[in-house]
């Protein structure tokens, strides 16, 4: 079956279960939000390695604000327009390096599905609870494949070149289709990121590149995820462990580099989900509020 049709059909299932109502609610924009009037206050203080991206890109600040995020920013780079939402804390003035978090949404958050649909999930909104001095970006991608992976890399490089970022503390996450995208990102530019969170998804990227770079990855999914199932993550986890063992790493070292967290059925019912309802939708709703999962991503 064509994959695009399959994802559209699954989106219909989510809408029928109430996620569609959440999506439409996400697009409501508040008048306040705490975003800086100019998101470029503080000047371009990024790393020299990313300066070319900033010089070649044209940034257009958006006008819609949702819970502190400027929703509709855009960046023209390499003959493409990248759409993204951005939160720059009011405390940022460019004098001190801030951390950076790039959160890639799932299938329902693509650009053609509506400006701001990428903010249906709470991953971006909880991040500053863990690290107050952190800039948070959520791209609105066009798909879950290689072009979107290239776009995530380009956006990350532009942010590094434009803001004063602590380049040792750049975090990446991807949920559902966004998880597929970040796996491709980590298969080509793992050097950009300190840690990565991969939720309710599957791995499509190059594991040799990932394990050579030794970027820590946390994979979380429901045991009976109704879109991907948990078997793909189990297989990826085993491949990563085997690759690290071949490199001579100990089990203790490997456990610091890859975590597989398969949530049993009881996890979802204990958190208020009705038995038998979608674990895929449940993971997207619950995992951003799981302190073990999010705490791992931002722990150092």
UniProtKB/TrEMBL annotation:
PROSITE patterns: PROKAR_LIPOPROTEIN (PS51257), TAT (PS51318). GO terms for biological process: proteolysis. It comes from Parafannyhessea umbonata. InterPro entries: AB_hydrolase_fold, Peptidase_S9_cat, TAT_signal. It holds the Pfam family Peptidase_S9. This is Prolyl oligopeptidase family protein. One of its GO terms (molecular function) is serine-type peptidase activity. Residues 143-211 form the Peptidase S9 prolyl oligopeptidase catalytic domain.
